[in-house]
Amino acid sequence: MDWHALSTNQIIKSLNTNEKSGLSSSHAKTVLSINGENKLIQANHKSLFVRFLSQFTDFMVIILLIASGISFTAALWEESGDFIDPIIILLIVIVNAIIGVVQESRAQHAIDALKKLFAPSACVIRDSKLQDIPTENIVPGDIICLSAGDYVPADARLIECNALKTQESALTGESLPCKKNSEIVLPSKCPLAERKNMLFSSTIVLSGNAKAVVTQTGMETQVGKIANLLNSEEAPQTPLQKRLAKVGKVLGIGAVLICCVIFLMGLLRNVPLLDSFMLSVSLAVAAIPEGLPAIVTVVLSIGVQRMAKSNAIVRLLPAVETLGAATVICSDKTGTLTQNIMTVTHLCSPEGDIEHHSDSAQNLLSLASLCSNSTVTKSKLKHKAIGEPTENAIVLSAQSSGIDVNKQKKEYMRVAEIPFDSQRKLMTTVNKFPSGLKQITKGAPDVIISRCDKFLLGGNTVAITSSNRMALLEQNNCMAKEGLRVIAVAFKDITRADMATENNLVFCGLIGMSDPPRPEAEGAVKICKQAGIIPVMITGDHIITANTIAKKLGILNNNSLSLTGHDLDEMSEQELSKKVKDCRVFARVTPEHKVRIVKAFQKNGDVVAMTGDGVNDAPALKVADIGCAMGKSGTDVAKGAADMILTDDNFATIVKAVEQGRGIYDNIKKAVHFLLSSNIGEILVVFIASLMSLDSPLLPIHLLWVNLVTDSLPAIALGFEKIDNEIMKRKPLSANVGFFSNGLGFDICVEGCLIGAVTLLAFIIGTNMFISENSIMLGRTMAFATLSISELIHAQNMRSRHSIFSIGLFSNKRMVFACIICSLMQVLVIAFEPLARIFKVTTLDFSQWLCVIGLSLVPLIVLETEKYIRHRKTI
């Protein structure tokens, strides 16, 4: 029911209550049994254990478990007692399952934060008595009494109020305090932010007092509807999760096929059954880079640390990469794109614009600050104002223009006041001046202009004419079109304080205020557009204000649209999906609208980043691909539903985080590229040797060693690569694009062939060209060493699309250390006799090591030549 569109008498009659006596205890008990308690109800969620088990249904996880089982079986059959491989795989699976459970828990945190917003008790009239009752026992029809500092316990229609203001920004997105009016009846389709005759659950009373009748409780309240959205909306899979799932399926199928083919080929060549099986399962394990999920987690963690230094705290690891894939950033206006500080930017007298330090400006600001309740304090050589945002802006502007506001208030003492009222839209004070009493009135320009019969002109009072009024109203309209909040100031001399009436005033001037854009926001918007990202403003503010800021920042141009929440209500989902492509500003929107907007972009294939700070933003933060909550102004509800928290509430920080996200995805891609090309090389060595009826160049233990040790550290080191300077000049990568797109699959195969070829060549050379007691063992040792070292050198190739020498061979110190450590471990395995016996290898002399190093350098030489040719073509 549209309670705001009904009179208080209609509502009281409809709810069968009484304004003075309230509900009876027996009637309230009956209503409570029908409606339920006034609290948020969470949807039934799976237990922690069930959610943990559900993580093991992923295809990649199943493949890893199979790999673990194979490795365990291999260790048993060989009687080597080497169970390190299956243990590591199981640890990886468990860690990934824990991450998945944490991700699913964010809705729970958001609901818990919503519950904290409810006050523990409320002041209610029951049985004709004022009683303090638990909030959960409040029912529709209860008469509640509120004063400054109280939480509103349920949605309610005002019966009466006195100078009532509430803070609803967390719910409506409206940045300024909301002034309430119990007398008005509003249209049924009135936006939430403009329902001045209503109070909403979980909002706060800033000033004044009120009596209201409860209309909705629990899940039926506006905040309850948000809880419903949080319960029903599922967080989408990240692009990284989708791509890894595809890679996992490809690798899993490939592993099974390899296992079967190698096993059959071994049988056809009369290789002993056990040896053939062991080799085939070792290759299958080698085909699956079981360290990949762990390496991805490590690389993402590195990104989290980097982003934390840039004021972006990541709650969920996959969010890092998702942000890098963002094609749309939906940002709140107040505090994110703007500074969230009302500032006086324009001063206007009847003669036109005036300078801040002129006599006219001094007089205007002096009068306005005397008619304000804000006070000025000084902290660390900087003045601060305490009070309402609008009045804070006035007194700070007066202070900066050379007026000592506190001294002035003592000098021109206030002797009377008529408080601001939303119906009058005026505030009046009477101050004692040396020349006598002066009445000062400020408020809505159209109201004040209508009550003035004179205006100041060149320091003199002149009678106002109809044409003068029209000119003053036009001044006001021009300032309003610029997105300014305009306050008019007038005065008159009186002889007694009780003579203060808000008529026959002398018009003094207009004060224009704005919440200025952040200085860095415009540059950040430009970077977004350059990077192929669409910046969109979503705000609860008025559309004129929103459009003005959006134009200043470059978000809105002549070819783009701006829509209101009312416009959205008139559109179907299909219409919105079409319109959203060209729309850059959404104003006066509700939580449901925000969710619809995000889903409309997602329906068009966009990856959406959504910022927000209030309770009203939480559902959209959850349903977006990446939710970014504000750290300073953000509510616990918003933070609980978000993937990332911006500690400085700054749009520019989001853009920096996008850059980091893209860099992290690049590094993950490099790690995947490196691991798969290396694994293909390992597979090809054994596969081609089998086709050529050669002895196996590598034993199962060699493959496991290379896969678990030599691959891991360099892959992790790739996560520390610096971000490409041109990364924000690229278009976003489509969420549907896999790891193997744009020729990457071909590159991986070619590089794998190179590694496999030099390894096989090392085996052939070792077997046939050197004199040895056991030529097969020597060949295997050279193949083993060449495979390991060529992969370490290949890791250098993966660092950049540019030449390794142009970015600096030693610019990534972690890569240098990783290669040194892995090389020493490889040498130790071959040179240290106890280890050599375990790995079934023999020592190599100088010439043999020289051959190994020469062959290992081949992939580097080939790929550096290819980079050079490609670079020459682009010049």
Please, what is the oligomeric state?
single chain
- What distance separates the N and C termini? 68 Å
Determine the structural class based on helices, strands and strand pairing: alpha+beta
Number of helical elements:
34
Query: Could you say which overall geometry the principal axes of the C-alpha atoms support?
Result: elongated
Name the helicity range.
Answer: 40-55%
The description of the largest β-sheet is: 9 strands, mixed
Average pLDDT confidence is: 83
Evaluate the radius of gyration: 36 Å
Topology, number of strands: 26
User: Low-confidence runs (pLDDT<50, min 5 residues)?
Assistant: 110-119
Strand content range? 15-25%
Question: Could you give a short description of this structure?
Answer:
The protein is of the alpha+beta class and 875 residues long. 50% of the residues lie in helices and 18% in strands. The strands form 4 sheets. Strands 10, 11, 14, 15, 16, 17, 18, 19 and 20 form a 9-stranded mixed β-sheet that branches.
How do the strands and helices of this protein lay out in sequence?
Layout: H1 8-14, H2 25-35, H3 48-54, H4 59-78, H5 84-104, H6 106-116, E1 121-126, E2 129-134, E3 143-147, E4 155-167, H7 169-172, E5 178-179, E6 198-199, E7 204-216, H8 222-232, H9 239-268, H10 273-287, H11 292-309, E8 312-314, H12 318-324, E9 328-331, E10 343-349, E11 352-353, H13 359-370, E12 375-379, E13 382-386, H14 389-400, H15 405-411, E14 414-421, E15 426-433, E16 436-443, H16 445-450, E17 452-457, E18 460-463, H17 466-481, E19 485-494, E20 505-514, H18 521-530, E21 534-538, H19 543-553, E22 561-564, H20 565-569, H21 573-579, E23 583-587, H22 591-603, E24 608-612, H23 618-623, E25 626-630, H24 636-641, E26 644-646, H25 651-691, H26 700-710, H27 712-718, H28 744-768, H29 775-797, H30 804-807, H31 813-831, H32 833-839, H33 846-856, H34 858-874
Parallel strand pairs: 9-21, 9-24, 17-20, 21-23, 22-23, 24-25, 25-26
Antiparallel strand pairs: 1-2, 1-3, 3-7, 4-5, 4-6, 4-7, 8-26, 10-11, 10-20, 12-13, 14-15, 15-16, 16-19, 17-18, 19-20
Helix pairs in contact: 3-5, 4-5, 4-9, 4-10, 6-8, 9-10, 9-25, 10-26, 11-25, 11-27, 12-25, 13-14, 18-25, 21-22, 25-27, 25-28, 25-29, 26-29, 27-31, 28-29, 28-33, 29-31, 29-33, 29-34, 31-32
